[in-house]
């Protein structure tokens, strides 16, 4: 992927106007580096394409929930798609408007429903009848009515990795399209909930329009049947899922996608809600890591770097390919094919296989397209502190999350009584 916000100048990679060598010197490695301009541009591509009609862009914060990202997007007018009370509190912490929040997820707890009802979020995306009944009970006990969309499982093949495909009938998500009409009738009669929308999300990293269009057609058929039965639907939420360029993929742009949706929706008076995550965040960030040791070999050659699967798990978990480049181009060593691996004690701990790079120990590498599902999926495996996050704005470097302190990793733990070192 080539981003206009991460470019080489005289052989050195910059994030906007900040050289990444300066970022690494300031905060150390590994670290995540984001571009404010890229986040802004990616969000605006949605907002501008949707501007012709009633709409809401609900950024799916599971992709990247750093407060600086949320605050930036809220300032641009974004709403948010949340999947936990933790994500709700993050949005509230940056002053986000609860009236622009939709709550997705197959397993919302009652305390999570209560908090979301108390702050009066826009809509709950309900994924089963059992959840609908729980939400209705919770709302009634608070003297409230919950606005709901049913997340319908349209049974379409998103054509993406099985772990991130969600719209097939064998997936755990949503209410089967065949049952949806009956459940809408039930919801209409059920005190404590008011059906106002239809929702679906068929998967992530989609690079073709056709699965989205197939899902939309099924939702529109449902909409029209409900309308004929007097059930008024105010919005259609198509979820997230638009893919990005990791390795030369050419997904439709938000503009193309939205134009196709609007054309199909036609004259129906529906607010259009989208929940993009990856397409806003992925190519707005990268992970910086430093080569510690080179271990050339006859069979394979390893470049051992200081970032690992605990910092960025996508390669290990999904065999995801993310571009890896040297931050400073060098011409004094030969290009060689390297396995880029981290220090974690797992053979599956790698960031890239068989990458042609001209590198030496001490060099900085950039793992591109890491702004989505990067830091948010980081763990402390091997008691490794999670890396810092930095937002670049022009030539300014803002540390928007400090590197985790080691003692914070065991702060909540305690010894058994009487267990003192022998
Ligand atoms: C319900 C829902 N909405 C939105 C998203 C965001 O998806 P993406 O990051 O592919 O845009 C997801 C994650 O796939 C999701 O499960
Ligand atoms: N974490 C996944 C995407 C999951 C989408 C969650 N609904 C990835 O990195 O590709």
Protein architecture, described:
- GO terms for molecular function: diaminopimelate decarboxylase activity; pyridoxal phosphate binding.
- This is Diaminopimelate decarboxylase.
- InterPro entries: Ala_racemase/Decarboxylase_C, DAP_deCOOHase_LysA, De-COase2_C, De-COase2_N, De-COase2_pyr-phos_BS, Orn/DAP/Arg_de-COase, PLP-binding_barrel.
- The strands form 3 sheets. Strands 4, 14, 15, 16, 17, 18, 19, 20 and 21 form a 9-stranded mixed beta sheet that branches.
- The longest helix has 19 residues, at 210-228.
- Helix 5 (110-118) packs across helix 6 and helix 7 runs parallel beside helix 8.
- The chain has 422 residues and is an alpha/beta fold.
- Helices cover 27% and strands 24% of the residues.
- The protein has helices spanning 20-27, 36-50, 67-75, 85-93, 110-118, 129-141, 177-189, 210-228, 254-265, 278-281, 314-318, and strands at residues 6-9, 12-15, 18-19, 31-35, 55-60, 79-82, 101-103, 123-126, 146-153, 175-176, 193-199, 235-237, 271-274, 285-295, 302-305, 324-326, 336-341, 350-357, 364-367, 389-393, 396-401.
- The mean pLDDT is 96.
- It is globular, with a radius of gyration of 23 Å.
- It has 2 domains: 6-34 and 282-410, Lyase, Ornithine Decarboxylase, Chain A, domain 1 (Beta Barrel), CATH 2.40.37; 36-281, TIM Barrel (Alpha-Beta Barrel), CATH 3.20.20.
- It has 11 helices and 21 strands.
- The protein binds pyridoxal-5'-phosphate and lysine.
- The site of pyridoxal-5'-phosphate has 15 residues, from helix 10.
Sketch the major β-sheet.
9 strands, mixed
How much helical structure, as a percent, in the residues?
Answer: 25-40%
Bound molecules: pyridoxal-5'-phosphate, lysine
Number of helices: 11
- In CATH terms, the superfamily of the largest domain is Alanine racemase
Rg, Å, rounded: 23 Å
Number of domains: 2
CATH architecture of the largest domain: Alpha-Beta Barrel
Under the CATH scheme, which class of the largest domain?
Alpha Beta
What separation lies between the terminal Cα atoms? 56 Å
* Oligomeric description of these chains: single chain
Mean pLDDT, to the nearest integer, reads 96
Which topology of the largest domain does CATH recognise?
TIM Barrel
What portion of the residues fall into strands of 2 or more residues? 15-25%
The dominant shape is globular
Kindly state the number of beta strands: 21
pLDDT < 50 runs, ≥5 residues? none
Going by helix content, strand content and strand pairing, the class is alpha/beta
């Amino acid at each position: 992927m080539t981003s206009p916000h991460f470019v080489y100048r005289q052989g050195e990679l910059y994030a906007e106007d900040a050289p990444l060598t300066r970022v690494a010197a300031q905060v150390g490695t590994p670290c995540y580096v984001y571009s404010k301009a890229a986040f802004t541009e990616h969000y605006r591509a949605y907002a501008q394409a949707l501007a012709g009609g009633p709409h809401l862009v609900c950024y799916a914060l599971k992709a990247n929930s750093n407060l600086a990202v949320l605050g930036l997007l809220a300032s641009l007018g974004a709403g948010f798609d949340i999947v936990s009370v933790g994500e709700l509190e993050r949005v509230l912490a940056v002053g986000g408007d609860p009236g622009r929040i939709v709550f997705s997820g197959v397993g919302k707890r009652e305390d999570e429903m209560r908090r979301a009802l108390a702050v009066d979020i826009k809509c709950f995306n309900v994924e089963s009848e059992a959840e609908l009944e729980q939400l209705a009970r919770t709302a009634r006990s608070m003297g409230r009515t919950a606005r709901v969309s049913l997340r319908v499982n349209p049974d379409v093949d998103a054509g993406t990795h099985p772990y991130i495909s969600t719209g097939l009938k064998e997936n755990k998500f949503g209410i089967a399209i065949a049952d949806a009409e009956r459940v809408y009738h039930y919801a209409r009669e059920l005190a404590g909930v008011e059906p106002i929308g239809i929702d679906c999300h068929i998967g992530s990293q989609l690079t073709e329009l056709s699965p989205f269009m197939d899902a939309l057609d099924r939702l529109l058929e449902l909409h029209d049947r409900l309308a004929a039965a007097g059930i008024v639907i105010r919005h259609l939420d198509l979820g997230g899922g638009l893919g990005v360029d990791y390795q030369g993929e050419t997904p439709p742009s938000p503009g193309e996608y939205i134009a196709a949706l609007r054309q199909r929706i036609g004259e129906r008076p529906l607010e259009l809600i989208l929940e993009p995550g990856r397409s806003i965040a992925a190519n707005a960030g990268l992970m910086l890591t430093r080569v510690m040791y080179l271990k050339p070999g006859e069979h394979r050659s390893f470049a051992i770097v200081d970032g690992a699967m605990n910092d960025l798990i996508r390669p290990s978990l999904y065999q995801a390919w993310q571009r890896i480049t040297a931050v400073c181009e060098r011409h004094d060593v030969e290009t060689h094919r390297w396995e880029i691996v981290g220090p974690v004690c797992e053979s599956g701990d790698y960031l890239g296989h068989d990458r042609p790079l001209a590198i030496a120990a001490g060099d900085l590498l950039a793992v591109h397209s890491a702004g989505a599902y990067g830091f948010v999926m980081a763990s402390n495996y091997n008691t490794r502190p999670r890396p810092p996050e930095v937002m670049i704005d022009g030539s300014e470097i803002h540390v928007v999350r400090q590197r985790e302190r080691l003692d914070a990793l065991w702060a909540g733990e305690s010894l058994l009584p009487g267990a003192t070192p022998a």
